[in-house]
Structure formats: C-alpha cells, structure tokens
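Bench log. Compound arrived from synthesis this morning; before running ITC I wanted a structural hypothesis for how carboxymethyl coenzyme *A sits in the protein. Inputs:
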Amino acid sequence: MNDSKGAAQQASGQKTATLTDHETGESYELPILDGNMGPRVYDVRKLYAQTGAFTYDPGFTSTASCKSDITFIDGEKGQLLHRGYTIQDLAENSDFMEVCYLLLHGELPNRSEKTEFESAITYHTMLHEQMLYFFRGFRRDAHPMAVMVGAVGALSAFYHDSTDITDPHQRMIASHRLIAKMPTIAAMAYKFSVGQPFIYPRNDLSYAENFLYMTFAVPAEEYVVSPTLARAMDRIFILHADHEQNASTSTVRIAGSSGANPFACIAAGIASLWGPAHGGANQAVLEMLQQIGSKDRIPEFLERAKDKDDPFRLMGFGHRVYKNHDPRAQVLRESAHEVLDELGKRDDPLLDLAMELERIALSDSYFVEKKLFPNVDFYSGIILKAMGFPSSMFTVLFALARTVGWVAQWKEMIEDPGQKISRPRQLYTGYGPRDFVPQDQRD
Ligand code: CMC
C-alpha cells in the first residue's frame, strides 16, 4: 500500500491524498488537514471503516494524536513556541506565573489578571493537614518521585469538590490547586527524605522563592532566598512548563480521555515522566558524569555510547523532535554560568567535565551526523546540583514545572467537543485460536 504523491483538491474544497492498496487494487481518498504551522496531516480517522485496515506507528513517530493550540515545536529549526511566543522571549522577559496563565488561558495576562491569578495560586499552596500523615507513611529512603506520584494521586481523596470534570469551575479550581500544591508536595518529599520538619508555604514570596524557601529553610534560623537563584529556578520552571505531545503529556491526555479526575491524570503523567528517556534524564546526566569521573575517560564513554551492543547512551544528548538544537538548552546554558558564578562554583569539577563532554561530543562525527545535541536536561542537572538539590529531586522539579502544561493540555482535551476515549489498535503477532490443554497433559 502506498500513498500517491501530491494532494488533489476535491469539489468540496477539501484537499485529499489518494491511498492505493496495490494488493486489492482499491484506492481511497484521505482528507489532508493543514495546521497553522507544521507538516500537513493525513486524516486517517475513517481509514478502518473505509478499508478494514489499521495504520502501524508504535512510538507515534508519524502520528498526530490530537489537535492543539498550546505549543508548537519545529524540530528542524530548534523552535519552541507557547501560544505563539518563543521560549527565549518568555524566558528572558516573562516569569513562570505569566507563562502558566498564558498556557492555561491562551493570552498573556494584563496587570489585574496577573494579580488575580497569582492570588488564586497563592491561596491554594497549603496542603490538607491530613496529608502530612500520608507523607509520614513512606519510607525515609523512598525516591521522591515515588512519593510525588502517590501524593498527587491522593489529592483526589482530599479535594472531592474539584473532581467533577464536567463543571468548568471545578476544572479551573483543580488546575489552580495542582499548580499551587506541587511545590509544597515537592518540598515536603525532600524534607521527609532528609529528616527535617516540613516548612509551610509563605504567601509573601513568589512561586519560585516560596519553593526554595520550603525546600531549604529550617525553623531554627532565618532563610533569605537569593534573587539570582530564585530567577534561575523560575527560568527552569518556564523552560519545562510545556512541550507539546511528549510521553507524559500524552499519558495525561490518554488517562483523562476516559473521564478520570485531573489529580489521577497528573499522577499518571508524573509516573510517565519518571523514566530515564524522559524526565528522569536530568538525574541520569549527573549520575553519568559521576560515572565518567574525569575528562580522560570521556573517549571511552563516547565509544560505549556509539556501540550498538552496549546499552549505554549519552544522557542529556538527543531528542525525538529537536534535530538541530534544543532551544531550552541554549537558555539554560547561560543560566548555568550565572548560577555557578553566584554560588562561587565556577571551578566545579563536574561542570568542567560536562563542558568538556559537550565540546568533544559536538565535534564527534557520530553525534554530528545523527544530529545529537545537548538537550535541556544536560544543563538543568548541573544547575540544580549547584543549588543544593540531590539528584533524586531533579525529576521532581521537572514534574512540578510541567504540571501547568499537563493541566492546560488536559483542559484543552476535555473542552474539545470532538473528544473521544483514546483506544489505539494493534498489530497482533501472537497465536491464533487453539485448544485448551489440561494441566496433566502439558510438557
Ligand atoms: N547517545 C548515543 N546515541 C544516541 C543517543 C544518545 N543519547 N540518542 C540517540 N542516539 C542514537 C540512536 O542509537 C539511534 O542510532 P541509530 O540510528 O544508529 O539506530 C539514533 O541516535 C536515533 O535515535 P533514536 O533512539 O531513534 O531517537 P529517539 O527519538 O527514539 O530517542 C531520546 C530520543 C531522547 C529517547 C534519545 O535521544 C535518548 O535516549 N537520549 C538520552 C536520554 C535523554 O537525554 N532524554 C531526555 C530528552 S529531553 C527531555 C524531555 O523532553 O523529556
């Protein structure tokens, strides 16, 4: 089966492509959908009804799973837009609360909208006190992502009044609650793991300041948040806020397509983000740098990364969509230097090793030919380590920042009148029907 090149224009004005099945000799017209930007899309929704055939695309490398107005990525140009604004512009001129508003509502807020939004988020930062007992039930050495998946899933047991997804007001309250409570949950997961008392949120601080305060303050002494670190934290949040239909966002959409409540859907997204090929890569970058240990061992690890028989991959390099550069990585590279200057850690041996690895990999023909460039995780791990976060917290911070993207995408899906439960098909490769063998006759 192949599709004839070039689009035909039907009498109705609908552009179509002709698909010819050379086995049966049948031809079918597939509508072509044009987005505002990005490649054209063959609409195969009616393909099964028309042809009795499925399409096969594990990993969704050629499949648009939904339509969306939120985020656009051009992987060839290294372009990332949120509601039309470049990520560089937002990281430079905006702050995380504005970006949250933009993702949720479609436009940047004016002054009063921003004040109202910030107060709605601030108003929801505290957790139900009963949740503290829930935290205390975990082992102290639990991975904070395990704690976060559990705690966020449990929010639906504490906030019943915002789980009716058919009510727009409840959807908005749930969205605010999720964005507001994630820093509190993340900081509590950290505090529990290091055996320090939980620190309650402070409403006079900005979103990023409050998170740093809840994470690093102790009741015994005053803690002043560094403006440089708060700005870097805010920037990390902006750069991770949304990224189109990646694995965790698609997980949230799939979970939500059944009508599951938003807290359960975001917990599913967190579980998906945890993997080392996705959000877990920032932790994996640091562990890899520690494993490499010194600059003279870089060539050895580069050879391992190229060896198809070795499962080792260069963590923090490569991306499914970006095939020239990751624009988020460029912004974070600058922040990494600012933060290390502020903290007096310019001579950090791990950063030195990371920079040398970046230099060598970018001039290595394997990485150049395959267009494998440092991604956002390559730099975020370095900054977060310098700030004092243990590597187990890196993915937690990614989840915190990505919550707004998940929520915006979930809302968009629920509010789409054409929304259906996600139910992919399969290419079955197992046995055909066969007779049951009683246990005493099995080999
Ligand atoms: N090190 C060595 N080789 C690599 C790497 C790497 N990091 N990434 C891709 N390749 C090779 C891969 O072996 C393949 O080679 P070949 O064509 O000879 O089979 C080729 O490059 C294409 O790779 P792919 O696996 O088909 O690409 P993908 O789109 O399926 O995978 C990826 C994308 C991000 C999972 C992968 O690049 C990877 O595992 N990177 C390391 C993990 C990482 O940094 N992940 C964070 C992604 S950014 C954060 C986010 O958005 O979640």
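What the model suggests: Residues 60 and 247 are 10 Å apart (CA to CA). The two ends are 43 Å apart (CA to CA).
ITC booked for Thursday regardless.
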